[in-house]
Each structure stands twice: as C-alpha cells, then as structure tokens.
Amino acid sequence: MTLFRIIVRNIDSFNMSRLRLPKLHQFLKANSGEIRENCLRNCEYLVAYKLRRGQQVLSLYKKLWGDMYFKQMFDHLKEKLQKQFIERKKLLTLAGSMLLFDWNKNRIDEKYMRSHYLDLEYIKYLTNLTITCSVCHKRLVIDSPSPNVDYCSCNGTKPVYNKKVGTCPWVPFLERQDLLVWRKEQDHNPGMYEYKVYGFYEEIRADMFLQVQLDIEYRKTWDLTAVEIKLVDSDPYSNSNVLYWEMQWPKFFANRDYVFNRRYIIDPVEKVMVITNHITEHPSAPESSQKFRVKDYKCTMVIRPVTTFDKPGVKFCMTYFDNPGLTIPGPIQTWVATSAMPDFLTRLRSASKRYTVNPDKRNSGGDEPCQEGFFKNFSIKQNTSNYLQKTAWVNHFKSYFLSS
C-alpha cells in the first residue's frame, strides 16, 4: 500500500463533503499532525503483519525440515554473505591502490623493452671482439676454461679476464659452463659494475624459462636468497606487476629489500620474449627500518628459442645493475659476483628443467614438460600497445566503484 493511498484513506475519514478543492491545501496543513499519526498507525500495522507472516513461514519450514536443515540453510547464507564481503573488500583495496599508484606514469615503456631485441646480436659482437682470437678465430679463455669449448692454442695466448679492447666499455669477466659474463664500470659510480650475461641451455624450453621467472610462488621454493617475495600491484592489460622482494644478506648486514616494476612482452613474430625490472615506489610497500631499501636496480632479460617456444633449446641475455648501498672492496665484490651469480643461474636452470604446470610435480625433480602450450591462447594483440583500450578499462573500473 503506497503512502498516497494511506493519506487518501485518512482524508476520507474526515467529513469532506463540504470541503472544496482550493481549500485542500489549507486542510492538509491544519490537520497534518493527525494525518501523520494515522499514517504511522497504518505503517506499524503493515510491518507487524509482515513480521507475523514471516515468523509463521519460518515456523512452518522448521517443522517440515527440522532444526538441522534450518541451521544449514542459515550457515550457507552466512558463508555466502561473508564471501561477498571479502571479495568486495579485495576489490576496494585494489581500487584504492589504483588511485594511489599511477600506472600511466610508472609503466615500463614498451619501446624501451623492444630496443633490447638485438641484445643477443650484441653478444655475438662482444664475443668476436673481446674473447675470440684474431688469428685462429677460436675462443680465448676468460678466467678458467669450460668443457666442450675449442680454445685458441696460439703461442703467447693468455686469459683475457678484465681486458679492455679499444673503446668497448664491456670487458670479459667470467666463464662457466654454458655461461659468459661481461661487466662495465659505472661512469657516475666508480667501483660499481653493470653486468651482461649470456647463456645457452639446450634442454630448457623458452616458455618454461619465462614461466619460472614469472611464478613468484614457485620461486620461493628454489631461490634460497628470497626471504619474502609478493605481489603488490598489477596492470594485467600490459603484463605489468609491482613486486616486493626481500633478499637474504649475511649476518651483521641488514637484509636488502626491493620494490620494483616488472613487465614482460612476448613477440611470436620476432620469436623473442623480454622481461624488464625497474625500481619503483608504491604506497602499499613502505620502507622498513630493519631493512635497507635498494633504490638503484634494473634488469632486462631477452629470451629467444633455438627453434620454437615449446621446444627445448633457449638462448638468453641478461643485463643488470644492482647498487646495494654499501661500498664493498673490489676483491670481495669480485668474489661475490663470481660465486653468487653462477649459483643463481644454476638454480634457475634446474628449476626451469623440472617446472611443469602441475604444482605437485614442481619439487619432485621430474623432467615432464608442460602439456598445455604456454602460447595456446596467445594473441599478438595481447602484447601490442593499445592505450585507448587500457584507459577505457581503467575508467570502467573506477566508474564501477563510484556507482556502487
């Protein structure tokens, strides 16, 4: 029963036979208190009637189904409401993060990532220039020989560790099985080095090699230096994430932690994948007084399959710089680099070898490959910049919360 009908009923209860229409307004104003009381009495009656009927229905259901079924029904309703509340809370948290972190300003530029497409070609140039004999055109030893490499045997040949060639800023630094490493001293920070690593793993698939580095939960099982690693924020339409990473340091040193923006692109036409990490700041990952926040870190890895993404055989080039905020003597810095870097890449190689989509097999050491191709549903449009669509998605997301 609408409020208008209630008012009309109350007006009819008065003697309206002599009341003309022009005087209706005056009548309503003069008798507003009594009309209000009559409306309230009618509303109370309706509410009491609905409650009484509801109680009768509940009593009937209770008799038909019993106390246990009645309790299960309410438990199910309670669980459903709690689930909706939790999901709503997550969405609100994500929305708040979007408002605080501007992806348009902090997203890694795709042009910058594509500029690294030729990194592996640059590795060939460095190999010919710095570690290949100009006479016999065989490989020169860097620091120590590796198995299955045909080295130069010319008279007077010496290791070329840290030997500068012409104006090339990169010098040979390290050689291990299937790994070559160069380094370059920073002009603005003497004593600090940027590293360029080349690797070739004939038994690893390119898609698995990428997945291992994107799967942060799996990384917790094989990266012994990762005290904590978690997702802070994400921009799925550009394959971008903000990650928090705490790195274990020796005793008497504070652990280093990082907040960095990670983005990857996959180009099936050029048969190349690129992962880039750049340091950033995020309101959801504030600094801690018990850890040292690294402010200068960058890393780009270019991955190419020997044949196809889902077949064994992968080549990669990783270029990175990390300033831990501590002046380390040269010999100690060299020792850390020559031990920690190969150890990390060895663990990465082993983790990639046993990685499968089935989580139960990831730690079993088995070599069963992923049955579902990583690029089964992949489209080139997924990795092509379309900022109009991205902006439309963000606006739609914000309008959802504003209209809720």
Automatic annotation (TrEMBL):
One of its GO terms (biological process) is lipid transport. The keyword Glycoprotein does not apply. Keywords: Acetylation, Cytoplasm, Lipid transport, Lipid-binding, Phosphoprotein, Transport. It is found in: Cytoplasm. One of its GO terms (molecular function) is lipid binding. Residues 170-357 form the START domain. One of its GO terms (cellular component) is cytosol. The keyword Chloroplast does not apply. Interacts with ACOT13/THEM2. This is Phosphatidylcholine transfer protein.
